[in-house]
């Protein structure tokens, strides 16, 4: 991992300040995200996770505290464009992010607005489409694509801008299981293969099992920060909590309570199945 790419210090954000409708969406949140890291952000409805996401590329500016991207203060209007070049956003509904009638033209939209030479635009489009596995669909109309493919086109459009970080705000929420799996696999590959910093915002902890770290938000505050297994176990052990651990984590906990000796940190169906087989084969005690 590299040095801190994003620094968030005592971040507070209030919607409709100085009115009776004022809502404190973030409340003194502090964290850092290192270059090359894959960070998941999870929280229930109203936890502040989307508000947090929009602060990472200056779509929102702090009411108090600060956010710095590569040392640039997002409150400085003179560097807003550079902040947004470094941190690209992918949103929930892919249909709202596609602007052209052909896939490759959509991916070229950002570089064209930068005024880049045609040869450089072509190179970036080709590389971005290859990175998300859609090179063979470059001449297809976006409306002919599946939801997962559309979201991958949106990711390619961000990649063509050469960001240091991609923030995906609930980018899998509207997708079917296949589309969701396609997007998650693409994001993981971009991080592991290409070293792009990823911040994946989700209400579903299942989306975050491949992350290096998970930040859990509740009522605008950071309530957990650590490896996925650690955060999931902590959240799952909190009575009355508003966050649900992944089904695999909950099932493993119930099996342990029933007497089966299972190791900690089981996050996938495959890992749980192997651990159950080992436990039963080893004569573990169970009810």
Blueprint of the fold:
Elements: E1 4-15, E2 23-34, E3 38-43, H1 49-55, E4 64-69, E5 72-73, H2 80-86, E6 87-90, H3 103-113, H4 118-131, H5 147-159, E7 165-169, H6 177-194, E8 197-202, E9 213-218, E10 221-226, H7 228-236, H8 247-257, H9 269-281
Helix pairs in contact: 3-4, 3-5, 4-5, 5-6
Notes on the protein architecture:
The structure is a single chain. The chain is α/β, with parallel strands linked by helices and 287 residues long. The protein contains nine helices and ten strands. The strands form two sheets. Strands 6-7-8-3-9-10 form a six-stranded mixed β-sheet, sandwiched between helices. A four-stranded antiparallel β-sheet has the order 2-1-4-5, covered by helices on one side.
Count of discrete alpha- or pi-helical segments spanning 4 or more residues: 9
Order of helices and strands: EEEHEEHEHHHEHEEEHHH
Secondary-structure class: alpha/beta
Number of structural units classed as domains: 1
**CATH class group:** Alpha Beta
Low-confidence stretches: 283-287
Secondary structure: helix percent: 25-40%
Per the CATH scheme, the topology name is Rossmann fold
């Amino acid at each position: 991992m590299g040095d801190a790419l994003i620094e968030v210090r005592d971040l507070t954000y209030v919607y409709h300040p100085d009115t009776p409708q004022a809502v404190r969406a973030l409340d003194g949140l502090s964290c850092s995200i290192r270059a090359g890291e894959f960070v998941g952000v999870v929280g229930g409805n109203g936890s502040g996770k989307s508000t947090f996401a929009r602060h990472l590329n200056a779509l929102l500016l702090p009411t108090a505290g600060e956010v710095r991207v590569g040392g640039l203060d997002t409150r400085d209007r003179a560097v807003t464009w550079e902040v947004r070049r470094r941190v690209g956003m992918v949103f929930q509904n892919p249909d709202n992010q596609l602007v052209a009638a052909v896939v490759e033209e959509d991916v070229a939209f950002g570089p064209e607005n930068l005024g880049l030479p045609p040869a450089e635009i072509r190179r970036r489009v080709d590389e971005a489409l290859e990175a998300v596995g859609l090179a063979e669909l470059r001449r297809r109309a976006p409306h002919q694509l599946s939801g997962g493919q559309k979201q991958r086109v949106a990711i390619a459009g961000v990649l063509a801008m050469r960001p240091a970080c991609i923030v995906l705000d609930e980018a899998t929420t509207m997708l079917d299981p296949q589309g969701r799996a396609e997007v998650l696999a693409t994001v993981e590959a971009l991080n592991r293969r290409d070293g792009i910093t990823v911040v994946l915002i989700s209400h579903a902890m299942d989306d975050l099992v491949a992350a290096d770290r998970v930040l859990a938000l509740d009522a605008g505050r950071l309530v957990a920060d650590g490896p996925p297994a650690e955060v999931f176990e902590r959240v799952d052990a909190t009575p009355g909590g508003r966050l649900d651990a992944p089904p695999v984590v909950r099932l493993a906990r119930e099996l342990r309570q029933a007497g089966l000796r299972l190791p900690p940190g089981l996050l996938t169906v495959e890992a749980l199945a192997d651990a159950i087989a080992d436990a039963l084969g080893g004569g573990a005690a169970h009810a």
